[in-house]
Amino acid sequence: MGKTTREIVLVKKNIRLQEWSRQIEEQKSSGLNVQDWCTQNGVNPKTYYYHLRRVREELLKESRTENKQAPNDTVRAVVPIPTAPADRNITIEKNGLHISLPSDIAADTLLALVGKLC
Fold first, then answer.
1. Interatomic CA distance for residues 109 and 21, integer angstroms
2. Single pTM value for the model
3. Neighbouring-strand partners of residue 98
4. Which of 6, 48, 64, 84 keeps 20 to 30 A from 115, CA to CA?
5. What is the CA angle 43-48-49, rounded to 5?
6. Which residues are CB-neighbours of 56 under 8 A, at least 6 positions away?
7. CA-based nearest residue to 50, from 16, 82, 84
C-alpha cells in the first residue's frame, strides 16, 4: 500500500471516529438510554456499542502516546461523561396552552396546577 493510500485510510478512520464521538456525545446529552436513542436514530445498538468501544480504545491509545507508556502499562484516563443539564424545565401542554415550569418546582404546586388543568 502506497504512502498516499495509507494517508487516505487514516483520514477516513479519523473522520469515522470523530463522527461516532459526536453521536456518542449526542446520546449522552439526550437524556435517553442507549436503546431508546438507537431506536430514535435508526442505529443498531450493537453497532453503537462497537463504535463506543473503538472510540474509547482510540482515546486510550492517544493517552498512551502522550504519556509515552508501553501498551501493557496501566493507563488511567479521565473521560468526561456529560450529564443532562440541571436547568431542564417541565413543559405542560393542553388545548394550545404551553406552560413551562422549573424542574425543581414543589410537588404540591405541580399537583395543584395539573389538577386545575385536568
1. 41
2. 0.52
3. 93
4. 84
5. 150
6. 79
7. 16
